[in-house]
Fold this protein.
Amino acid sequence: GQYSAGKSSIVKALTKIDDIAIGEGITTLETHHHDWNGIEVIDTPGIHTELRPDHDEITYQEIADADMLVYVVTQELFDDFIGQNFRKLLIEKDKAGEMILIGNKMAAIGNTEENQAIKLKDLEKVTKPYSPSQLRTVFIDAESYLDSLKETDEEIAAELRGRSNYDTLVATLNDFV
């Protein structure tokens, strides 16, 4: 996905590696390889930023070599430019069968079933002829999960973890594998 969608935050949540850099703006400048349950996870720079066109080349090479593509967007979903490029991956590069689509940063609007249903409907405009369910779409909030790991109050930690929808993400990844 595009920079600042939360790709590195998701990798950090999955791997529990503390020194993975996360932040606003362009944070990941090159690919980083990590292990998650015996699977090589590759964190790539964002694509289609226009600020760093070299990142497209780096990322598209990793996409070409990957067995699974986890495409990350924020709860704002796609603008026209990103949507067009996503469709190229989906249709022209025929990546639909290898893809999981993640809507991240859902805490900003509330990661509720109602908001997820609205976002799924909005996604159909970009994912056709595929449905969001065919792309194994899952809505998460990686930051909430990372915060839950640091929270000392068990009740608050459980609330953050629930809001994150982390368990559904892991189940979706495991089902794909």
